[in-house]
Amino acid sequence: MNILGILTQPSVPPDFTVDYLVVAGGAGGGGFGGGGGAGGLRCTVTNTGGGGTLETALSLLPATNYTVTIGAGGAGGGIGAGAAYTAGASGNNSIFSTITSDGGGGGATGGGGGAGPFVAGVGGSGGGGGASGNLTGAAGTANQGFAGGDGVGATTYSGGGGGGAGVAGSGATGGNGVATSITGSSVTYGGGGGGLTGTAGSGGGGAGGISISTNPSGQPGTANTGGGGGGGNNNVGQDGGAGGSGVVILRAPSASYLSATTTGANVNTYTTGSNTYVVFYAPGTITWPLLQ
Fold first, then answer.
1. CA-wise closest residue to 170 among 186, 190, 153, 146
2. Distance (Å, whole) CA 279 – CA 21
3. Is the torsion defined by CA of 109, 112, 117, 118 positive or negative?
4. How far is CA 208 from the centre of its chain?
5. Which residues of the chain have pLDDT under 70?
6. What pLDDT score was predicted for residue 2?
7. DSSP-H helix ranges across the chain
8. pLDDT at position 13, please?
9. How is residue 33 annotated by DSSP?
10. Sign of CA dihedral 121, 125, 130, 134
């Protein structure tokens, strides 16, 4: 800027803080197996994952391009040709600035034929154990989510519930997620998938298959909640459900928001009261401008 022949630089506003919710992708449920673990959850408002203390708001800089990564959910496991059993696939990480939430761990399969993988996966929240073999549920990540439950085995052939962001999987029931009011309304994210015969945790987890003839396949986790997929049954085509994708939500005081520029296929920006909210349902970027 040139005022009266004097060259001046654009003024730079001080650092400003942004509250956030970063939820990773949930994992898939295993074939004849456990529920998928929920995506890891990190949040600065109301509650955070894994029973941890609230995260600290981020101090951000203007004229800096911040990339937002939204973790996809993991595919469900199943039973292929030649009785080849597979566990559910892990979810993918979600990232904003220096904050990374870990994808959920896949639900174990109760079978052992084929090349695997077979056992429950460690993740943001851990996968549940298998319905016949590979019974042990896996651990979650500290301050992001909880462990998956153990499968029961030959007595009932129930898979272990996937861990949730708020509670561990218990028996065949997926762990509940975490409720946060970062948007002004309480919404629950990060529910674990139910193991075979089990129910899902609140917060977007998918239910496990019920029986070979009634709803035999695991149900998928809900998109943009990080919910784990439900465990599948013991026949070809009765697969575990896929995990739900993650989400990133940012909240900043409207006075410091300064009409940030965003990119991405599915980004929602809105203002309520004194705050402006940016919700990334898909990958993108955000940049706050300099004051001129």
1. 146
2. 9
3. positive
4. 18
5. 1-15, 256-258, 290-292
6. 44
7. 254-257
8. 53
9. B
10. positive
Residue 284's identity, in one-letter code, is G
Beta strands in the chain (DSSP E): 2-3, 6-7, 16-23, 41-43, 58-60, 65-69, 79-80, 84-85, 94-96, 99-101, 178-180, 187-189, 247-253, 261-264, 267-272, 275-280, 284-287
Structure tokens at 263: 């990119």
Paired tokens of 283: 């990958």
Q: Kindly report, residue by residue over 178-206, the tens digit of the pLDDT.
A: 999 999 999 999 999 999 999 999 999 99
Tokens at residue 20, please? 């956030």
Q: Nearest 5°: phi and psi at 22?
A: -125, 115
What span, in angstroms and rounded, lies between the C-alpha atoms of 208 and 233?
8
Longest dimension (CA), the chain: 87
Amino acid letter for position 65: N
DSSP state of 135: -
Asked if residue 131 lies in contact with residue 152, where contact means CB atoms within 8 angstroms, the answer is yes
- Rounded CA gap, 207 and 96, in Å? 30
Q: What is the DSSP letter of 256?
A: H
